[in-house]
Amino acid sequence: MTQSNQSDEQRNWQLWINEKDPDAGDLLIRKYTPLVNYHVQRIGAGLPKNVSKDDLKSLGMMGLFDALNKFEPQRDLKFDTYASFRVRGAIIDGLRKEDWLPRSTREKAKKLEASIEELEQKLMRHATPEEVAAHVDLPVDDIYRTVQEHFFSNVLSIDEQIQDSEEAEGKSFVIRDVETKSPEQQLVKVELLGDLADRIKLLNEKEQLVLSLFYTEELTLTEIGEMLNLSTSRISQIHSKALFKLRKYLTSEMLNA
User: What is the pTM of this model?
Assistant: First the structure.
């Protein structure tokens, strides 16, 4: 960012904070809209196709506007970090309230998981997506998509349990200090990451690369596709296939976290 752009942004922040100047607010919203698009694509990667990206963006924009209204520049926190928390929270909260990931989707995932367990007991080994598709008489792409939706439904379930617990105890919502961990938590984290790393090594090279770029480098599926010269839908399929292979470990550890 050039010095001129920095001074312009600082001036817009001053006008917004001190006077709630609508033009300054509009310029700040425009500047940080790509942040909303980023979270929409990342969250949307795990949702059913019937969930509109425009609806997700509307929720994200509400989160961005909320962040703009509540941000306190004097605190030692970057707006990008604060806004990311608000945008992601607004999208996930909206999904829960509007039931855009309905109970039927979760039930479908549970039934598929039971079918996979049954097939693997019969085969005495891990089943491939193609074998599962033949077993339940569904297209293989549906298997990938359902496993991915199941993964995301666990995220919503955990979020729901946390919020229900907070409401029951009459506590206001706060940002947890995720940086400070007890020695026990740190030890468990190291062990889990080590176990997960071992399982990821069993994936093929392209699957490992897509997971690394998506979860570690935090690139979007579109950006990964551009890097690897593949379509977004192909990257999505690779991502889903990798989750399928890791499904038992990922979902069980998420639910036990």
Answer: 0.60
